[in-house]
Write a structure and sequence with these properties.
Strand order of the largest sheet: 5-6-1-11
Number of helices: 1
Distance between the termini: 96 Å
Number of strands: 11
Structural class: alpha+beta
Largest sheet: 4 strands, mixed
Oligomer: single chain
CATH topology of the largest domain: Immunoglobulin-like
Radius of gyration: 27 Å
CATH architecture of the largest domain: Sandwich
Strand content: 35-45%
CATH class of the largest domain: Mainly Beta
Length: 154
């Protein structure tokens, strides 16, 4: 009979041990998060207020001096692509009063300049940017977007 009690105690002790290990593994975070090496593109929208019919170009520059250029591409600001060819760092799209910039980074501060058709500066704004992750990307850095930046035209 004592042999049967000993086996019951051993079984109960093992069961409690397994339970404790399972509970503690939840406290330590369980399995480690593995993040891919895929680069993500973040989005920054610019809204021009006023008459944008004479705006030829909207250019964005970050705090390090990297800027978009005509048609959103500045050939002097590039990064190497997978084929060894240079690809633009910032690209722009849109027309009229709405522009969207695609960026491989998330600068904390940007300068946005709107140029008239004659090349003169129609408006310029320098502002801090607050980025928010898009989707469920809190464990691994993923794409982000910021609230639209308003640029009042004169």
């Amino acid at each position: 009979m004592s042999s049967r009690i000993d086996h019951s105690r051993i079984g109960l002790t093992a069961l409690v041990g397994v339970f404790v290990v399972i509970m503690l593994s939840g406290c330590t975070g369980g399995a480690a998060t593995v993040c891919s090496a895929v680069g993500y593109i973040s989005t920054l929208s610019v809204e021009l207020t006023g008459d944008a019919t004479q705006i030829q170009e909207v250019r964005i520059c970050d705090g390090d001096g990297a800027c978009s250029g005509l048609d959103g591409v500045d050939p002097t600001v590039t990064s190497p692509g997978p084929s060894g060819d240079d690809i633009p760092l910032y690209t722009a799209g849109g027309s009229g009063n709405s522009r969207t910039f695609k960026m491989p980074n998330e600068p904390e501060r940007v300068s946005i300049t709107a140029y008239s058709a004659d090349g003169s500066i129609a408006a310029e704004v320098t502002t801090d940017v607050v980025w928010e992750d898009v989707g469920d990307t809190t464990d691994c850095k993923g794409p982000a977007k910021a609230d639209p930046i308003t640029v009042p035209l004169t």
